[in-house]
Amino acid sequence: MKRHVAKWIAVAVAAAVMAGCATTSPVKNEVKGGAQIIDWQGSELGRAVPEWVNAVNDSDKAAFAKLPEMEGKIPFSVTGTGKDRDLLKIWVDTNDAQAALSKLIQENVTATAETGTRGNKDADDGAAKKMAQAITTVFSNTQFSGFAKERDFWTQVRRPDGETEYRYYVLYSIGQENLARQIDVALGKISVENEKEQELLNDMGEQAKITAMSALGTMQVVK
Fold first, then answer.
1. Whether 28 contacts 54, CB under 8 Å
2. Could you give the angle at the alpha carbon of 122 between the alpha carbons of 121 and 123, nearest 5°?
3. DSSP letters of 92-128?
4. What backbone phi and psi angles, to 5 degrees, belong to 48?
5. pLDDT in tens, 89-138
6. Total-model pTM
């Protein structure tokens, strides 16, 4: 199969602020980029495009959290585009999206740990730098798991250039407690030598949790 390129188009999940994601809505003929929807899953049965799909197209990530199955979980979406619907669905479903999402968490946590030493009163004596390096090392070797597929949907669109393509939408989730527990296990592998280091590790660990839980959002897969 032709090699695909994955690119991240957003990496934040906001707090839930709107309702109605479990409903359907009239078909929005035009989606982002000026593409026109010409076919969609369930259209032959008179079904409309689900509201959560419209939310993905509108980059309204806060809306995902209102789905009933997302309670206590961190939601995020993956969108694939391609010419062959069946091959597209197979590729998105079997591609190692979980590894990519795990890597995203790693990168966000380690970046936060590194920038957290800037301006820190303990940075000069090396304590903050030592803990930041320890967190970076541990999280760089940590693989997160527990991502679950919640929903999927496909549409066919006609782009402004006249070409048609399929778009496949998938909603994933990971339990908040599950992710927090995995972070605690990773942090527990770090050794400290004194009270100052323990205090720094605790502070950086809490920031690591916040960063990890805000890392997930939407990912677009493009052929």
1. yes
2. 95
3. HHHS-HHHHHHHHHHHHHHHHHHHTTTT-TTTTTTHH
4. -95, 170
5. 988 887 766 777 788 788 888 887 777 665 555 555 688 888 889 998 99
6. 0.70
